[in-house]
């Protein structure tokens, strides 16, 4: 029984001695050995250590290391104690005799090497934790990672134990619980019980004061077995009870020191529970969880002041409708193929669904849901009465003939037309879907419905499209950047800018940057990047467009401009610059790229793509005080012109390019002011590097949430 009268189960008794300064310097764990067998990875004689090293407020590195074993003569009880890192809590279970096993030395070394925490790499657009030996993630082992030594039974037993070990069972959960794994420290909440204790006793004793719960975080039993707080390792621990100062001026400081948290990273119970529910419901949708995590973090202040919005946010994060269908088509050789089509109709509170269609091999449900959420908030931050949606297919348009594209688009529309309409859902173009594809899609829709409606936007101007629609996102991106610079008393003229991507957004952003006197020095595609230290001008930009229109490699540019250099599989983020415009795709800019930007002197990052920066990259920008403009605000120019296209089509009119450009500048300035105002209302000043991120999320959410409240629980 503890001081509060609570009983501890087997394996849950932790005794702590405090030497007066509040640090727990020694601990022993007493319990039933049966409880430890479920997490003992190498048998009862080996010890598992999870060391968590802190850098700032978050977890920066996680290592799994092997302790001494009975079959290694280099380690003994004395050596183990002397070699233990300072500050570790040593918890040793009761020793029981076991049968001696013959183990090949190299096999043992490789086994131990396995448990030095693996590396993180991106696989199919998703961060995964890979084993450093078998080069596979999770439980996907296709070969024996331990060589050919030992008997077949030994090899198979080792492989089975490895697959079922704590390393792989906890890998994806730890990925979400570590900032370096993509989602932030507190994405998987845990309960930590904090008790008072007396420092006057040689043996630990709990006083009569009831236990104090600093935070209400849940901790799974297996994860608790290797929890480490403030550099103090807790081995095989089922309930963490760490003594902290009861009161005093340093109590709060010590509390944050132990938990590796600060007030900005702590989430309210409501926000925490919402995020946990999303992760539990869709644990494998990495892109969607990443987008939700950013939004929920931004809305903590809103939810604390307006509790009525908690349930609204829960409804908002679940799409209203998800449509998946097969898309059969025939290529020019007469061979049949099947792809998967999607349309995620996310939220219709503000108006008809509005969002792009993306044809790309990386399309999946997670990507569609994240883009649908982003589109909902993007439309919300504008003044347009449009809901949010996203669709597309895992079809690869590169290398396809016009006839193949037509057959695929017609097959795609044969199912999609049932779910769209001018007052229901109005798709537009995105990656892989340009004017040609929109034409094929609209033609099939018109044939199936016998209706010529204001449905698909991004059409050609001669038959219902708007002027400047292809240029809108790139132009609007630069207009937004101008507003950011104006508040900093700066101007685009003479600033060196790095741009990624070579699609419509990147190309038209380059054009507008050149027009304003900036010096763009880079452009990239999936195969590499071009760096031109002299900067691009209109003549060079024309050459780049010609290269892309003929589907040639960017390397062709260096044949005409010898001072430029082409980098195979390279990124432009290490080039000296003042501003960065990531315009390629989601999660293209990671932690190392962000560090390269900081070292290159970058001061402002403006997103041209949707969520192009990973969580790790955003953390680098925050710590480095880099001003960061999110895509849901900065690249909203495209949807603005789509809305204007719908207005023109309904009135059977067409505005001039100058009129459209003037309206676009006004709307982008209005969006910037909305973000700035929302951030200020909730105590986030412009001096904060995250002010525009939080402001965009808050302004968009409040507009959508109020509409949802007034329309009832639907």
TrEMBL record:
Compositionally skewed regions (Acidic residues) per UniProt: 61-73
Keyword Oxidoreductase: yes
Organism: Marchantia polymorpha subsp. ruderalis
Region (Disordered): 1-30, 61-99
Keyword field contains Oxidoreductase: yes
One Pfam family named in its UniProt record: zf-C17orf113
Keywords: Oxidoreductase
Similarity remark: Belongs to the Glu/Leu/Phe/Val dehydrogenases family.
The enzyme's E.C. designation: 1.4.1.4
Name of the protein in its database record: glutamate dehydrogenase (NADP(+))
InterPro entries per UniProt: Aminoacid_DH-like_N_sf (IPR046346), Glu/Leu/Phe/Val/Trp_DH (IPR006095), Glu/Leu/Phe/Val/Trp_DH_C (IPR006096), Glu/Leu/Phe/Val/Trp_DH_dimer (IPR006097), Glu_Leu_Phe_Val_DH (IPR050724), NAD(P)-bd_dom_sf (IPR036291), NAD_bind_Glu_DH (IPR033922), Znf_C17orf113 (IPR057456)
Ranges where the Glutamate/phenylalanine/leucine/valine/L-tryptophan dehydrogenase C-terminal domain occurs: 466-712
PANTHER family: NADP-SPECIFIC GLUTAMATE DEHYDROGENASE 1-RELATED (PTHR43571)
GO BP terms in the entry: glutamate biosynthetic process
One annotated GO molecular function: glutamate dehydrogenase (NADP+) activity
GO CC term (a single one): cytosol
């Amino acid at each position: 029984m503890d001081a509060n009268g609570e009983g501890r189960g087997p394996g849950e008794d932790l005794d702590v001695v405090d030497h007066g300064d509040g640090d727990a310097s020694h601990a022993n764990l007493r319990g039933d050995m049966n409880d430890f067998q479920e997490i003992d990875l190498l048998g009862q004689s080996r010890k598992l250590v999870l060391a968590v090293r802190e850098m700032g407020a978050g977890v920066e590195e996680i290592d799994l290391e092997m302790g001494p074993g009975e079959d290694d003569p280099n380690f003994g009880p004395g050596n183990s104690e002397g070699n233990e890192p300072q500050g570790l809590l040593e918890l040793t279970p009761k020793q029981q005799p076991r049968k001696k096993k013959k183990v090949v030395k190299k096999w043992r070394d490789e086994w131990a090497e396995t448990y030095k925490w693996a590396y993180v790499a991106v696989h199919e657009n998703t961060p995964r934790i890979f084993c450093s030996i078998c080069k596979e993630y999770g439980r996907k082992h296709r070969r024996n990672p331990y060589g050919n030594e030992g008997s077949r039974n030994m090899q198979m037993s080792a492989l089975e134990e490895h697959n079922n070990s704590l390393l792989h069972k906890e890998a994806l959960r730890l990925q979400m619980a570590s900032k370096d794994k993509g989602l932030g420290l507190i994405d998987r909440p845990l309960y930590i019980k904090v008790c008072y204790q007396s420092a006057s006793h040689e043996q630990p004793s709990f006083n009569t004061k009831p236990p104090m719960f600093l935070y209400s975080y849940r901790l799974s039993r297996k994860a608790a077995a290797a929890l480490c707080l403030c550099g103090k390792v807790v081995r095989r621990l089922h309930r963490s009870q760490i003594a902290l100062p009861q009161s005093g001026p340093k109590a709060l400081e010590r509390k944050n020191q132990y938990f590796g948290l600060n007030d900005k990273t702590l989430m309210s119970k409501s926000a925490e529970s919402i995020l946990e529910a999303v992760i539990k419901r869709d644990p494998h949708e990495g892109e969607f969880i990443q987008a939700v995590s950013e939004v929920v973090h931004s809305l903590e202040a809103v939810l604390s002041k307006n509790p009525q919005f908690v349930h609204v946010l829960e409804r908002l994060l679940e799409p209203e409708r998800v449509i998946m269908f097969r898309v059969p088509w025939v290529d020019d050789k007469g061979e049949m193929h099947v792809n998967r089509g999607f349309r995620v109709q996310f939220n219709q509170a503000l108006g008809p669904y509005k969002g792009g269609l993306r044809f790309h091999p990386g399309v999946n449900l997670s990507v569609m849901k994240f883009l649908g959420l982003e589109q909902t908030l993007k439309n919300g931050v504008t003044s347009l009465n449009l809901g949010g949606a996203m669709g597309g297919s895992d079809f690869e348009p590169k290398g396809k003939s016009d006839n193949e594209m037509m057959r695929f688009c017609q097959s795609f529309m044969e199912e999609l037309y049932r779910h769209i309409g001018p007052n229901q859902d109005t798709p537009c173009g995105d990656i892989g879907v340009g004017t040609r594809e929109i034409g094929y899609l609209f033609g099939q829709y018109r044939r199936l419905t016998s209706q010529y409606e204001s449905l698909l936007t991004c059409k050609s101007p001669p038959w219902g499209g708007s002027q400047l629609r292809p240029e809108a996102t790139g132009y609007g991106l630069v207009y937004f950047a101008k507003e950011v610079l104006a508040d900093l008393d700066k101007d685009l003229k003479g600033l060196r800018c790095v741009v990624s991507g070579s699609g419509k957004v990147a190309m038209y952003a380059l054009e507008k940057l050149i027009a304003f006197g900036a010096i763009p020095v880079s452009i990239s595609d999936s195969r590499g990047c071009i760096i031109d230290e002299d900067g691009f001008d209109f003549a060079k930009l024309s050459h780049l467009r010609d290269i892309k229109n003929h589907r040639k490699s960017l390397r062709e540019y260096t044949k005409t401009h010898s001072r430029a250099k082409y980098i195979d599989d390279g990124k432009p983020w290490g080039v000296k610059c003042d501003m960065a415009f990531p315009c390629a795709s989601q999660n293209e800019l990671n932690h190392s790229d962000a560090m390269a930007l900081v070292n290159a002197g970058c001061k402002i990052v403006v997103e041209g793509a949707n969520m192009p920066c990973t969580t790790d990259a955003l953390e680098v920008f925050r710590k480095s005080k880099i001003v960061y403009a999110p895509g849901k605000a900065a690249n909203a120019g495209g949807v603005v012109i789509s809305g204007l296209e719908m207005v023109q089509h309904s009135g059977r009119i067409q505005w001039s390019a100058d009129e459209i450009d003037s309206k676009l500048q006004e709307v982008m300035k209005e969006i910037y002011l909305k973000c700035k105002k929302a951030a200020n209302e909730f105590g986030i000043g412009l001096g904060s590097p995250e002010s525009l991120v939080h402001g965009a999320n808050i302004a968009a959410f409040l507009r959508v949430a109020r509409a949802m409240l007034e329309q009832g629980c639907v």
